[in-house]
Amino acid sequence: MTVPAIELKGISKSFGPVQANKNISISVAPGTIHGIIGENGAGKSTLMSILYGFYKADAGEIWINGEKTEIPDSQAAIAAGIGMVFQHFKLVENFTVLENIVLGAEDGGLLAPSLAKARKELEDLEEEYELFVDPDKRIDEIGVGMQQRVEILKALYRKAEILILDEPTGVLTPAEADQLFRILHRLKEEGKTIILITHKLREIMEATDTVSVMRRGEMTATVKTSETSPEQLAELMVGRKVLLRVDKAPAKPGKPILEIENLRVTDEAGVERVKGIDLTVRAGEIVGIAGVAGNGQSELLEVLGGMRPATGSIRLNGESLPLSGPGADGQARRARHIAHVPEDRQREGLIMEFHAWENVAFGYHRDPAYQRGIFMDNAALRADTERKIEKFDVRPADAWLAAKNFSGGNQQKIVVAREIERNPDLLLVGQPTRGVDIGAIEFIHKQIVALRDQGKAILLVSVELEEIFSLSDRIAVMFDGHIMGERLPHETDERELGLLMAGVAGEAA
Amino acid sequence: MDKMPKWADVVLIPLISLILAAILSALVILGIGEDPVAAVKLMVSGALGSTYGWGYTLYYATNFVFTGLAVAVAFHARLFNIGGEGQAMLGGLGVAMVCLYVPWPHWSIALLAAMAAAMVFGAAWAAIPAYLQAKRGSHIVITTIMFNFIAAAFLNYMLVNVMRPEGSMDPATERFPEAVHLPTLHELLAPIGISFSKAAPANVSFLVAILACFVVWALIWRTRLGYEIRAYGHSETGALYAGISPVRITIVTMLISGALAGLMAINNVMGEAERLVLNSTEGAGFIGIAVALMGRSHPFGVFLAALLFGFLYQGGAELALWTSIPRELIVVIQALVILFTGALDNMVRMPLEKLFLSLRKGSA
């Protein structure tokens, strides 16, 4: 039996009353890829932060290569051969690749010798792991996939033998993700140990040798990937059986509700983000917009939701919608029966410091039903909130709790309840399940489909292809402000959409 | 989960900050060779030991309630109005014009008119920085503080060149007519058999200040405008999403804030001086910032904090009068209170939060 590269024994950590990790033990064999999967808040990130020296465990031991190791800070983690690639890269944008790699690991006060030495070593590393990047390009000149390679190279340059990747594919196109997994396999072949943290079942199945499942701070199972299935993993994550695909009848599209023609959006910096798109959404259908984040989808939603001006023409129920000026704000949109579940519920959809009952009025606070003379009718509002909390199973069912004290899934339920219960003609939905646990995803998807079945139009924007596939009746792919093509979900596959998302024109794909 | 109970945030932190400020002040007094215990006794007896002392304490507190509320309202929209000083000066100008140039039959009508004028002038002075912030993005902190200087210079000009009575060398208006004299607490309380010092300046404006606290509370927590102000203050992108116009909220909030600061003039100009003099505000606009910080931007907290600063002002004046503790030291004590309650809030907050977390863990 080989000595495990990493062994955690009985790790526990709590933050106040919240126990983030409960008596967790894992053992990862050297030269393998080990997945850690779990819902948001299951304690994955806490566990890895302990391993990387950001937090100190309340109890438990860390053994590396058969030796008990104390990791009080990240320097100690690096010294123990642990490298971490964060979800949000820690790179200096206006430094070159080479400078970023050396940063924090310079030898002595003069930079030139360090850089020369690093250049040589970098070449060797690139050779060895087939991780090619141009060392003299600035970080802001290279793509996200390349930036991630720089992060990996940074860790390898610091002699990492154990590499931890936290949600590495969140910002990548499917093709870039595939490349990443090829790199990980290559690293594995060279004897590195890799821990992959993700909430995506597909990646676990594709890339890992063994997988540990976490739920509510506990390690519920560790299994060989080849001996499990996505369904079983999902059940282990949530603690009950879940439907991974939404059960829905075929759409019966009616008359056009939303008609967009030649829409153009220029942002505050003067950059054109949406470059003349045409799109129609009909009653009783869900149109999904796929694309890598930052290709104009967010701006499209914001224009429709009254959050930014645009040019072109949008008609709702056949009547034109103002695209700038005071008649184009969020209030005007709501008056036209457009409801909006925004992409960022914490910064847009909710006021985190407000009570749940104040948030249930957010955006609709001018509704006459919530007024009593010159004052707001808080009693009516609270009654309305109780009703919505019950109907949407928001937990805890406490109208007085501040939004920030709900979990991500329950925050999203509050937003979805508020918007769907308005019975809108058009529902805009941005990233409806980002940071939402699987149980709540199922519920939110069902609500969206139910609204569709009532004959309402729904425009969905999501960077999760799985979500696009399972919800949409029609898929439009956006790249660089253009719609690259529209597809029906049963007539396309991830590969084709991936090409469209990467800007390869529809016909060539 | 909140890090600690609300009462700790609202009561305990200001209290501990205050105690720390008091300890440091005591050390400073010791350092210059005076007796801190005697000094505290003198402050308490001077500010609270007689109706005369109370009359001054409440008079100062009235000023601070108005300027504190002004800052607090702006805080709710995450606007830092440090122009209370200038807005209160302009409010004084409005009050003076109303009282001097219109013959009033009775003080009550005059008071209503003076309130209106004070609010309009204060709001007008806040309107320009508000517009610049909302439309041009000029930072409100910079513009409001600059407007304090402009207000002082403008008032100087008005008093020296326009409103000074002929033949007078004093840059001040003439005395307001007797008809607009506001009843002092002595005059208000005498009919119901309570004797209150005749000499103290506290007047009917104190009641207006209490009323203002209730109005501001209702505005912020019970009206739609208050809802929008708070929403905007917590999240600008959230406001945009909800269709709450940032321009409108910025301007309206600053108008309300300026109006409240201006309203202070019914106390110091109409109630006490009964004429407009240079520097009539005596820094109350700045004290308002500390009052709002310490009062957690809540009208009730502002009221309590205003009382505290009223006490410090009056007690400090007594101290300077009766001991060899110099006038400047009073400023030091007040500054320490401001420093601890306002700026060093987190210094007390962090260890307290840790304490409460570990207490909760122990009981869990």
TrEMBL record, chain A:
One annotated Gene Ontology cellular component of this protein: plasma membrane
Keyword Repeat in annotation: yes
Annotated compartments: Cell membrane
Pfam hit, one: ABC_tran
Superkingdom, natural source: Bacteria
Keyword list, A-Z: ATP-binding, Cell membrane, Membrane, Nucleotide-binding, Repeat, Sugar transport, Translocase, Transport
InterPro entries in alphabetical order: AAA+_ATPase (IPR003593), ABC_carbohydrate_import_ATPase (IPR050107), ABC_transporter-like_ATP-bd (IPR003439), ABC_transporter-like_CS (IPR017871), P-loop_NTPase (IPR027417)
Topology of this chain in the membrane: Peripheral membrane protein
All copies of domain ABC transporter, residue ranges: 6-241, 258-505
Membrane spanning residue stretches: none
One annotated GO molecular function: ATP hydrolysis activity
Family statement drawn from the similarity comment of this UniProt entry: Belongs to the ABC transporter superfamily.
Protein name per its UniProtKB record: Heme ABC transporter ATP-binding protein
Automatic annotation (TrEMBL), chain B:
Localization (cell): Cell membrane
Protein name (record): Sugar ABC transporter permease
Bilayer topology annotation: Multi-pass membrane protein
Entry keyword set: Cell membrane, Membrane, Transmembrane, Transmembrane helix
InterPro entries found in the cross-reference section: ABC_transp_permease
Record's keyword annotation contains Electron transport: no
Organism: Ruegeria marisrubri
Superkingdom to which the source organism belongs: Bacteria
UniProt GO cellular component terms: plasma membrane
Sequence intervals crossing the membrane: 12-33, 53-75, 87-104, 110-128, 140-160, 199-220, 240-264, 302-323, 329-348
GO MF entries: transmembrane transporter activity
Keyword set includes Amino-acid biosynthesis: no
